[in-house]
């Protein structure tokens, strides 16, 4: 499955990642790659809990990323 994520650079030069269609599914990472790996793990855990609780799994087909570029 694919989910839209919002990736923001935080004040500590790391990244905060939020999954827009999974309320409360948020993670962080010191690098872009760490942030992506961590949110992937968070999404898997989130979906596992929904499955265990017999809750519907949200379906989304678009993934968007945002990278702030300064000149």
From TrEMBL:
Domain of life the protein comes from: Archaea
SUPFAM superfamilies listed in its UniProt record: TTHA1013/TTHA0281-like
Domain HicB-like antitoxin of toxin-antitoxin system as annotated: residue spans: 3-65
InterPro entries per the UniProt record, alphabetical: HicB-like (IPR031807), TA_system_antitoxin (IPR051404), TTHA1013/TTHA0281-like (IPR035069)
Name the UniProt record assigns to this protein: HicB-like antitoxin of toxin-antitoxin system domain-containing protein
Annotated Pfam families: HicB_lk_antitox
């Amino acid at each position: 499955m694919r989910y839209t994520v919002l990736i923001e650079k935080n004040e500590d030069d790391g990244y905060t990642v939020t999954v827009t269609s999974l309320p409360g599914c948020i993670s962080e990472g010191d690098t872009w790659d760490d942030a992506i790996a961590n949110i992937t793990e968070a999404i898997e855990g989130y979906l596992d809990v929904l499955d265990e609780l017999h809750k519907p799994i949200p379906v989304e087909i678009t993934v968007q990323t945002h990278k702030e570029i300064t000149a």
